[in-house]
Amino acid sequence: MPIPIRFRKALPGIALAAFALGAAAAGAQETSAQAQAQSTNQTVPDKAADAWITTKVKSEFATTKGIHATDINVDTTDGVVTLSGGVASSSEKAAAVKVARAVKGVKSVDATGLTVKAAAGTP
């Protein structure tokens, strides 16, 4: 069934109106997200930078020989990297701290939560 001419002429306007409504809704969500981010005293760009740092530290761990990346948890807040979990030796812990410090944007590294596991068979 063909669409009447008067409706065909109105279709672009309807599509534009639907697009505008979608953009307005997205803008409202963005404003809400920004307000929520500011309420945690950290801006959206800061959170993005922290997420980037966390990802970069994890990827450096994954590609560094002698560091078991799956055993180390990484969290970043305001450029401060917090490492937690367990490592096999104190040298692995030192290497993890060194690698994390070398990542661009890292202000400091807190490894107090990174513990050296007892070797298997050790009482």
UniProtKB/TrEMBL annotation:
InterPro entries per UniProt: BON_dom (IPR007055), Lipoprotein_DolP (IPR051686), Transpt-assoc_nodulatn_dom_bac (IPR014004)
A Pfam cross-reference name: BON
Keywords: Signal
Signal peptide positions (record): 1-28
Domain BON: residue ranges: 49-118
Protein name (record): Hyperosmotically inducible protein
